[in-house]
Write a structure and sequence with these properties.
This protein is α+β, with helices and mostly antiparallel strands. The protein folds into three domains: 33 residues; 96 residues, Aminotransferase class 4, branched-chain amino acid transferase, N-terminal domain (D-amino Acid Aminotransferase, Chain A, domain 1, 2-Layer Sandwich), CATH 3.30.470; 128 residues, Alpha-Beta Barrel (D-amino Acid Aminotransferase, Chain A, domain 2). Strands 6, 7, 8, 9, 10, 11, 12 and 13 form an eight-stranded mixed β-sheet that branches. β1 and β2 form a beta hairpin. α6 packs across α8. The longest helix has 35 residues. The radius of gyration is 28 Å and the shape is elongated. The N and C termini lie far apart (94 Å). The relative contact order is 0.11. The N terminus is likely disordered. Pfam families: Aminotran_4 (PF01063).
């Protein structure tokens, strides 16, 4: 019995080894078949496929131009608007970005955004290949360094939106105060008609938000606002506000009508939010030279 058992065990081992070997061979054959169907492309063939891919991409945004320090120039061919796979921004996520709008042939708040991205790069320990004036000249001409110009064909949407609280807090709950949204700032209008914005402490130092604070001084002089305040805002205070808004280069000034399950104010776009949006739009079209840089 012992001998039979031993033979059976030996047979099982051999059978198992053969079975595993067969599986390995089968998998390899399938993989080899798949690989054999993948073409090896020349540079021109790869570029042609990139062009076809871009032609098939449909959306509301048009990519007009891109400057790359890799090839040291500007391209208007969307197929060439690529980043090397060994760029740290791609394979390590080590990069910084900023956004500035172009309105009526003028870059809006270029210098403010340029100063901020240079600060961000310094904090991220990214070595900039050019000095500030060279980068500024490139950005004006374009409208490792990448600069891309995008035309958004969708009209500006000023309708009120709903927002939710992130499940990942920026700070432990006992220290939490209202800070900012993703890549934008937040502001409130209190029942006393004060414009309240969280302090720029460990949050986005918003160029548009700072410009809104400057423009809002006109509403104080007109008596539409009582006062402008910068400081900590608790979640409870924010949800009790008459108005709430998100502020950023992309959204400009966007009213918030509901936060989680709490309706803000009367649930409609507030008059101060609308007034600030109008002021920003006017500033983008006819503001002072300090915020409008002409592009060729």
């Amino acid at each position: 019995m012992a001998r039979c058992s031993h033979q059976a065990e030996a047979l099982n081992v051999k059978t198992s080894e053969k079975f595993n070997s067969d599986i390995f061979t089968l998998r390899w054959q399938i993989l080899a078949t798949q690989i054999s169907d993948v073409p090896i492309l020349t540079c021109s063939e790869a570029l042609e496929r990139l062009k076809k891919n871009r032609e098939n991409q449909k959306g509301k945004q048009r990519f007009l131009a891109m400057y790359s320090s890799i090839f040291g120039g500007i391209t208007t061919d969307t197929a060439a608007m690529v980043i090397p796979m060994d760029d740290h921004m791609v394979h390590r996520g080590h990069g910084v970005f900023d956004t500035s709008a172009i309105v009526d042939g003028h870059l809006y708040e270029l210098d403010q955004h340029l100063d901020r991205i240079l600060r961000s790069a310094s904090m991220a320990k990214i070595n900039i290949p050019f000095d500030r004036e060279t980068i500024r000249r490139i950005l004006i001409q374009t409208p490792a360094l990448y600069a891309i110009v995008i035309q958004d064909q969708s009209p500006h949407d000023s309708r009120g939106i709903k927002v939710v609280t992130s499940s990942v807090p920026m700070k432990p709950p006992q220290f939490a105060t209202m800070k900012s949204g993703p890549s934008m700032n937040v502001a409130f209008v209190t029942k006393e008609q004060d414009l309240l914005m969280p302090a720029f402490d460990r949050i986005l130092s918003g160029c548009t938000a700072k410009r809104v604070l400057t423009l809002a001084e006109g509403l104080v002089k007109q008596g539409k606002l009582h006062e402008i305040k910068i400081g900590d805002v608790t979640v409870e205070e924010g949800k009790k506000a008459d108005e709430m808004m998100l502020i950023g280069s992309g959204v400009l000034v966007r009213p918030v009508v509901q936060w989680d399950n709490q309706v803000i104010g009367d649930g409609k776009e507030g008059p101060i939010t609308r007034a600030l949006l109008t002021l920003i739009l006017e500033d983008m079209r006819s503001g002072p030279p300090a915020v409008r840089v002409p592009v060729p």
